[in-house]
Amino acid sequence: MVENGNRMAILRHNNGLLQKDIAKILNVKENTYSKWEKCSNDIPLEKINVLANYYDVNLDYLLGISNKIEHSEKLKIDYKKICERLLELRKENHLTQAKLSDKIGFFQTTYSSFETGARCPTTHKLLYIVNFYNASMDYVVGRTDRKKIYKSIHLN
Length: 156
Hints:
It is a single chain. The chain is an all-alpha fold. It has 2 domains: 59 residues, Orthogonal Bundle (434 Repressor (Amino-terminal Domain)), CATH 1.10.260; 62 residues, lambda repressor-like DNA-binding domains (434 Repressor (Amino-terminal Domain), Orthogonal Bundle), CATH 1.10.260.40. It is 56% helix and 0% strand. It is built from 10 helices and no strands. The longest helix has 14 residues.
């Protein structure tokens, strides 16, 4: 797996951009973007989505889940779909929230809040979940309706 920060840096360099250019596109401070690129801070889902749209790549590619660039059918994250698809994946795998939470190291109340929509998972937490299911981030967040399965990725 390519660290998502490394993939972000590669795409930025390949497009002849500086960190300050991307920070401006994302409407954040340059040092904030720099931390995201170094993987020292979790990049918000909305910001990673803006980057994927800017570079015209899928989230799976940008986050290092896949090495294949696919152009997304939808450019927005569908927060309602996140809830629906997390529930769908859990049920397809015949897991209770308690059992899944134990396997991925989350509190059950935390995971439950993702399925109910009370809270949106962070990018890092969603990466743990899609890694557990070997699923596509683009599918889980509603950017595509094509369910894809990948090999497991390693998370820090």
